[in-house]
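Troubleshooting entry. Yesterday's outputs looked truncated, so today I'm pasting the complete records for two proteins to confirm everything comes through intact. If either block looks cut off, that's the bug. Protein one:
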Amino acid sequence: MLQRVTVIRALLVCLFVGFPAAACFAETYYVRNGGSDGSSGKSHDSAFRSVSFAFDMLRDGDSLYLQSGGTWEPLASLSLIRDDVTVGAYHVNSAGAV
């Protein structure tokens, strides 16, 4: 019951502030060459391996970040037309921090 009330409150706050509902529940996913498509994709340490797998997970408002310097499969087969999706790159420094 508590979780349901929390979701309802979050939705009401989003509507009151004027955010689209999708933005309130947006996810951020990561892709890196050493990742696994069996992971959650929600951090560098649990990043997906393939862009195509990650792209299938995206919904409006989500963000997808590819590790800079990575080598990716050809993207020609992907439908890159998505509403309100951010795609970018991220860098990991020598200490392993994103």
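Protein two, checking that the full record survives here as well:
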Amino acid sequence: MRFNILLACFVTNMLFAASSLAQATGVLKGRVTNARSKEPLIGAVIKQLNKQAIGTVTDADGMYSLTLDAGNHKLICEYIGLSADTFDVAVTEGTTT
């Protein structure tokens, strides 16, 4: 009986600890187009400059959606044959920017 109570307390503490470590996130959505022709750039890569494992690729309409931690981020957009472009964004918890 005592073991079950200790186990229940341990599991409860672990659940609270895990929930407190979860980051607040928001969504960044946009469209990437060619500056001259205004045509969508299919397959452009958008990623965080300092965390390049976090990123996405534009679809057939040049649209992208990227979930990021709330806060300020520096992103880079790359497309084969064009110069890369960096930009700053502010992501607010629970919103789409």
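Both blocks look complete. Sanity check on protein two: The chain has a mean pLDDT of 83.
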